[in-house]
Write a structure and sequence with these properties.
The structure is a single chain. This protein is mainly beta. The chain has one helix and seven strands. The mean pLDDT is 90.
Length: 109
């Protein structure tokens, strides 16, 4: 498991949140848990132009599904609760990190 790996959501909300992305640094792979951010279907979120596609909520396409990063619902889950790995968003790692920075510190300006 690597930072920015995308896994299927095995939880109760998998219809609206089909995937999660690991945001935890691989420095902490020795722990039995991973910090993940939900990837919610764009169609499952209310249309709010100020939010959709913003710095906090970048949009990605995974398995032909448009999903939006939803860091306000970030959570730690046990490794065995993660579903199958379906890909990686490593090429979008900076956008994900920027979203977390927006949520936590706004240190960018």
């Amino acid at each position: 498991m690597a930072q920015f790996d995308v896994h299927r959501n095995k939880g109760a909300l998998q219809a609206s949140t089909p995937f999660v992305v690991i945001v935890q640094s691989t420095l902490y792979d020795g722990y039995r848990r991973r910090v993940v951010v939900p990837l919610r279907r764009r169609t499952a979120l209310p249309k709010q132009p100020a939010i959709a596609g913003s710095r906090l909520n970048p949009v990605f396409r995974i398995e032909k599904i448009d999903v939006m990063l939803h860091p306000l619902d970030m959570v730690s889950v046990a490794v065995e609760q993660l579903g199958e790995r379906v890909g990686s968003l490593a090429e979008h790692g900076q956008a994900i990190t920027d979203a977390l920075d927006e949520l936590l510190t706004r240190s960018w300006g």
